[in-house]
Amino acid sequence: MGVPLRPLTDRLNTALERYLPEKRLFLRSEDSTRFVRLRPLSQATILACTTAFVAWSFVASSIVFIDTLASGDQREQTRREQVYFEQRLSELAAERDRAAAEAQAAHNRYGEAMDRVARMQGALLAAEQRNAELENGIEALQAGLRERLRERDTARARLAELESDTLTDELVQTENRLAEVEQTLDFLMHALADTADEREAMLAMAESAIQQAEHLALEYRLIQDRNHRIFSQLEQAVEVSMLPLERMFRAAGLPPEQLLQQVRAGYQTRSASLMPISISTSGTLDPDGDEARANSVLEALEEINLYRLAAQRTPFAMPVRAGVRQTSGFGTRRDPRTGGRRMHNGVDWAGPQGTPILSTGAGTVTFAGRQGGYGNLVIIRHDFGIETYYAHLHTINVNVGQRVSRGDRIGGMGTTGRSTGVHLHYEIRVGGRPINPMTYIRAAQNVF
């Protein structure tokens, strides 16, 4: 058997009477006076509901505040990482230039050394050829000398045999010829000794040049290894920085290849620091050489620069940065005025009146004024057939034809037009067709 409801409420009223005495609320009209009796249990119920509502409001406000602080810290951390990465890219580019200059200097020194070695080898070959010619000449002279010695011996024998006056003149002539032959032999012996000394000196010079060439070749290989590590780090850094940009554009439904072609067509001038390196004189670059790898890195850096230009002209940013809350998303929803189902072509954020409204990308203002249910409206035309709409503004701070950049203030939040409260209605249209703005905003969350 359960406890009867009325005795239970009476006992609760009696227990609470001590803390919440019964009160009466009088309601007076023109011809009568009535009162409402608030028993202790009713007062306790009202007090409990009020306390629960206040606690729930406090907890919800705390969660929203903490979420706002966390998102602000994340954006600041992302900005610091981007600044650090840009500084690191600049340092790596400077180190790459220094390494390229050192490699070119080593290449020049190596070429000069090889030229010296070639000249020395040519001189050594010429000296060896002269030495061979001298040796052949000496052999011929020695043969002639032996012949003259035989003649001398024959003449002396004849002189000893005959010892006559008629042979005196012939003996004198033979002795004179013998003296001439001895002088010629002494000259050839001295020339042979000088040639041998010159050959030894040339051999020593050639050995020194070969050692110097080997040292320069080792230095060149060390520089190439260092350049390989530098280029590997540069290529990895470029790839790491390019992947988030490619993913961002693909997530937004914009093909990166087509996008870069359009940006390159409208951006004819090229930075001097990104011009290709042209060092080789052979007509072609080695695909694994430093010049080719440097040109590959420069092409990737130019592509990153084109991505940067495209990102500036594409509405990836949030149109409002103050403490606001999203009240309605993109898609079919219940109309707040009529109660029926209706397509909502944008995203709504609610906040205080006058909250700054910012341009989400670089572009040109094509409309700035009042337009039907949009109220005060600003339309900005961006590149790639994209338009952004900013509706229900309280104030407009731009004019038609004005060029704006990402983050420029274009107006203040309001409630003009078909609106039930202060908020911003934000649309993105591609080729005149509305798309979900959160697709662009979410695509760039981890990039900007």
Protein model, in words:
The structure is a single chain. By secondary structure, this protein is α+β, with helices and mostly antiparallel strands. It is built from six helices and 15 strands. The chain has helices at residues 5-16, 40-162, 168-251, 256-265, 290-312, 437-443, and strands at residues 23-28, 33-38, 325-328, 331-334, 341-344, 347-350, 356-358, 363-370, 376-381, 386-391, 393-396, 403-404, 409-413, 423-430, 433-435. Strands 3, 6, 8, 9, 10, 12, 14 and 15 form an eight-stranded antiparallel β-sheet that branches. It has a three-stranded antiparallel β-sheet with strand order 7-13-11, with no helix packed on it. Helix 2 runs antiparallel to helix 3 (168-251), helix 3 (168-251) runs parallel beside helix 5 and helix 4 crosses helix 5.
